[in-house]
Write a structure and sequence with these properties.
The structure is a single chain. The chain has 13 helices and 8 strands. The protein has a domain at about 15-165 and about 185-220 and about 280-285: Rossmann fold, CATH 3.40.50. The longest helix is centred in the last third of the chain and has 15 residues, at about 245-260. Helix 2 packs across helix 11 and helix 8 runs antiparallel to helix 13. It is of the alpha/beta class and about 290 residues long. Helix content is about 35%, strand content about 20%. InterPro entries: Diverse_substrate_MTase, Methyltransf_11, SAM-dependent_MTases_sf. Pfam families: Methyltransf_11.
Length: about 290
């Protein structure tokens, strides 16, 4: 379950631990992000409830837990755990646009301004930290130190990612078309998020705070998408959101050409033609010492 690209040193981050591409891209059009980004398959939540945090599978136990959804975005993961009856659930998100979208969707859920290195919660106050589709933006010792601070003893960090499965030929071509615009940002596919758990100097610090090695699992699934949904999925990527109108138009031509390929099977779903977009969902977790 490694990233599928070459390794390189990620660019520096802005004050507050927010990468500039993330800060700009994810604040550009939250409506597209919310509409286009897929949710997570039911099997992921079942894994969490049965193996990673069994207390979440028991309403009585869940009611005693304090849970943080860190870098919650528009609440893609939050909505899956809201029905579990968690005693105290709070989301933290640095993007004002994302927080606004979250609040419109979930007016009764708590979301507050904060970042991976400035979590506005007391010491030892959280049982579980979920980080969905985000840890690659702040995979560093400073962020892990802050998570360690707010976690209770034996508290758990759970990281989750959806990634388009390039083993399918048209997906590989599609990813090549848009990934060339990444501009050096530390995307999950590159595997840079593993550095704190693999590089000796970082491991030396992280192993004082958390049980290593981390545990991992991968779940494969597919999402039914129309042509427009595939394009909106591309637009939802932070580094695509900040492109010029002209650059987006050129990319749209490439995407349309790929989707016209003969290796794609289209089905009829209502009034739409849809394809099955293959994904892998990766889950990694570890506990505080």
């Amino acid at each position: 379950m490694a990233g599928d690209g070459e390794s390189h040193t990620p660019p520096s981050t802005m004050a507050g631990g927010v990468h500039p591409v993330a800060a700009s891209g994810f604040n550009a059009d939250q409506g597209i992000y919310e509409m286009a980004r897929p949710s997570y398959p039911p099997a992921v939540l079942e894994l969490v409830k049965q193996e990673i945090v069994p207390a979440l599978g028991n309403p009585a136990s869940a009611s005693t837990l304090s849970v943080l959804d860190l870098a919650a975005g528009t609440g893609k993961w939050t909505r899956l755990i809201l029905p579990l009856g968690i005693g105290h659930l709070v989301a933290v998100e640095p993007s004002p646009g994302m927080r606004s979208e979250f609040q419109q969707l979930y007016p009764h859920a708590a979301i507050i301004d904060g970042s991976s290195t400035a979590i506005p919660l007391p010491d030892a106050s959280v049982d579980v930290i979920f980080i969905a589709q985000a840890f690659h933006w702040f995979a560093n010792v400073a962020a892990l130190t802050e998570m360690h601070r707010v976690l209770k003893k034996d508290g758990t960090v759970v990281m989750i990612w959806n990634l388009e499965d390039r083993r399918t030929s048209w997906v590989a071509r599609l990813r090549e078309a848009y990934e060339k615009h990444e501009a050096g940002s530390p995307q999950y596919r590159l595997g840079l998020w593993r550095r704190p758990f693999e590089e000796p100097e970082m491991v030396k610090e992280v192993s004082k705070m958390f049980q290593l090695p981390i545990q991992e699992r991968q779940i494969s699934h597919s999402v039914s998408n129309s042509r427009s949904a595939v394009w909106h999925r591309v637009l939802s990527k932070s580094y695509i959101a900040i492109l010029s109108v002209e650059e987006k138009e050129e990319l749209k031509k490439e995407v349309d050409q790929i989707l016209a390929g003969q290796d794609i099977h289209w089905d009829t779903e209502g009034d739409d033609q849809v394809l099955q977009y293959p994904y892998n969902t990766d889950i990694a977790w570890f506990k505080k010492l």
